[in-house]
C-alpha cells in the first residue's frame, strides 16, 4: 500500500494494519504529518500541529503493539476540534480572546488517548463556533478540499477538511446545531451526532444550554463506529464496530422520508439535495426496507426555543472561556450581548419546553424506525462569505442551510450525515438519517448498508488525492 492509499484508508483499516503488524504507527504518523506539511498551507485545517508529540506517541504505540496491546485506536492519527480541551494546548475557539493553555484533557480526549490514538493537532473553528462556515478574523478561512474557493462548512470545518483530505484517520468534532453534519455533508464524510450524553463533553458540560454533543467526522461508517467504541460506555453488545458488520445488516426498517421544513425556516432546497433524498429513499426500498413519505409534527416553538438556547450558550462561552473579550470580533461581541440580555424566564422556558417538543416529535417513532431528510439545503458558501456578515445578518441567516439539523439537538436524538453523490459542480451532497434516542447502532448499521451499496470513500478530493 502506498503512502496516499494508507492515508486515505481511514481509522478502522489503519488500526487493523497496525494490529496486524503490516504498518507501524510511526510510519503512518509520518505519512500523515508529511501530508499536513504539503497540503495544509492551502487548506488551513489545523491551528496547531503537534508533530514531535505525535511521533513520540507513535513510538509508544509501536512498543505497546509489540507487547501485545490491542487498544482500538492504537497508533491511529486523530484530529481534535479547537473547542475541545487538549492538555498543554490552548483551546482557542477561533479567536485570540482565549485563556491560553489548559491543564487537562477533556474527557473525550482522555478516552481517545486511552484507546491509543495519536493526537496530531487541533483544527480550526469559526470564532466561538457560531458560523456554518469556518472563517475567523484571527485565523482566516479554512478551505474545502473539493474546491479551495469554498468553505468546508462549520463549525467543525477544520476537522472536516482534515478528515476529507486524509490529514488524520478520523476527526473529533462537536455539534450544537449541525456542526458535525453540515461540514460532513459538504466534504463527503460520514458525520455522526450521537444521542445526547453518549459521548462525554466534560468539562464543557451543558454546552449551548444542552444542545451540543461531541462526535466523529469520518471517511467511513467503520471509522465512526471505532471512534464510538473508543469513547463511549454502554454501547451495543459487542460494540458499534460489530453492529455494522455486513452479516448483521439491519432487519427490515420502517423509514419515513420528509423534506418538510420545521416552522420558522423557509429554505430553498437545491435540486441536487432534493434528488439525493429521493435517490436514497429508492436505494433503501431496493435494500428491502419499508419506505414511505411521512412528515414529523414539528412544534411551532422550535425556532424560538432553539435560537434562545444558542444565543445564551454563546454568551455563556464568552463569560466562561474568554478572559479577553475585547479581542473578539465585533459581531461576536454583539451576538453574545444579545444572548446575555435575554430574560431569564425566556431561557428557562426554552429548556422547559423541550420535554413537550420531544413528546410531540416522538409520535413519529411509534410506527417509524428512521427518518430520512435533506442534510444541507444547498452547496457550500464561498470561503470567507460568512466571515464578512454582521451581527444582524448572522442572526437572520446563521442556520439558513442547516434547516433540518438543529431540531435533533433540541430533542437529543442521534442523527448522521451520509454521503449521497455530488452536485453539478462536483461537490459532495449528503442526506440526514435520524433515529429515536439511543438507537445510534441502528443508524450506523443502516448507513453502513448504504455505504456497501454505494461506496463513497473511493472518491477523493482533487486537492488531496
From TrEMBL:
SUPFAM superfamilies: Amidase signature (AS) enzymes. It comes from the Bacteria. Its EC number is 3.5.1.4. Residues 27-444 form the Amidase domain. Gene3D superfamilies: Amidase signature (AS) domain. Pfam families: Amidase. One of its GO terms (molecular function) is amidase activity. InterPro entries: Amidase, Amidase_dom, AS_sf. Belongs to the amidase family. PANTHER family: GLUTAMYL-TRNA(GLN) AMIDOTRANSFERASE SUBUNIT A, MITOCHONDRIAL, TRANSAMIDASE. This is Amidase. It comes from Baekduia soli.
